Structure formats: structure tokens, C-alpha cells
Amino acid sequence: MRILLATNNLELGFLRAKVLESVGHRVDMGSNDQQLLALIASRTYELLLACHSLSENSCETISAAFRSANPDGHVVGILKRDFDDDTCGRQQFDVSVSGISGPGALLNAVRHVGTQSAGSA
């Protein structure tokens, strides 16, 4: 699956990318609106991972651009905690996952939306 990881926390972003790549996903990462919009314009993605480190405005802008360019894509929100609304707001997400739940929870969320995509194809 081709994944776009949107995060302002590059250290954590690189760790998440490594986990996803270790199970065969292709991950591109951007840390600001300009980078993320350029990536969205340059290729097709199946999944946007939006990290809690994004501002609300950034998350809304990136989510809208992603959905416009990738109408069959999904958006997974990585929250600080299970019960957070976080800066982006859950309404932007198809699925949300708690960042403190570890890599297994992230992989399960990605697997879940991958199953949804395969079912609609």
C-alpha cells in the first residue's frame, strides 16, 4: 500500500515509516503543508496517516487535498490518546488509533482500511 505520513515530529515519523515499510508498505513523509501538498500532487496514495502533531488548519487542508486527489483513499488519524479529539478532530478520519498504543495498533488500523479498500475494488 502507498502511504503518505503527515507529521511534524520527524523522529517519530521515521520510526512509524520503518514499521510500515517492514511489512511491505511504501511510505512517503512530509512535515509541512508545502511538502505534503506537493507529494499529494505528485502521486496516488491509498492512505493518509495524519499525526496528532499537525495543527488543525494543516490537518484540514491536507485531508481535503488528499481526499480530492485520492477519492478511494482513506485517512487514519494518529491520536495522542484513545479519547482525544486532538487538533485535527475525529471527523477528518475514517479510522483513528492511539499513538501510545504502539506499532501493533498502527498496523491494525492500516490493515483495517486496507481490507475496506480491497472490499470496494
Please sum up the structure shown.
With 121 residues, this protein is α/β, with parallel strands linked by helices. It has helices at 10-22, 33-42, 56-69, 103-120, and strands at 2-6, 26-30, 47-51, 74-79, 95-98.
List the helices and strands and how they pair.
Elements lengths: L1 E5 L3 H13 L3 E5 L2 H10 L4 E5 L4 H14 L4 E6 L15 E4 L4 H18 L1
Parallel strand pairs: 1-2, 1-3, 3-4, 4-5
Helix pairs in contact: 2-3
Overview of the molecule:
The chain has one domain: Response regulator (Rossmann fold, 3-Layer(aba) Sandwich), CATH 3.40.50. It is globular. Helix 3 (56-69) links the parallel strand 3 and strand 4. The chain is built from four helices and five strands. The longest helix is centred in the last third of the chain and has 18 residues, at 103-120. Helices cover 45% and strands 21% of the residues. With 121 residues, it is of the alpha/beta class. It has a five-stranded parallel sheet, with helices on both faces. Helix 2 (33-42) packs parallel to helix 3 (56-69).
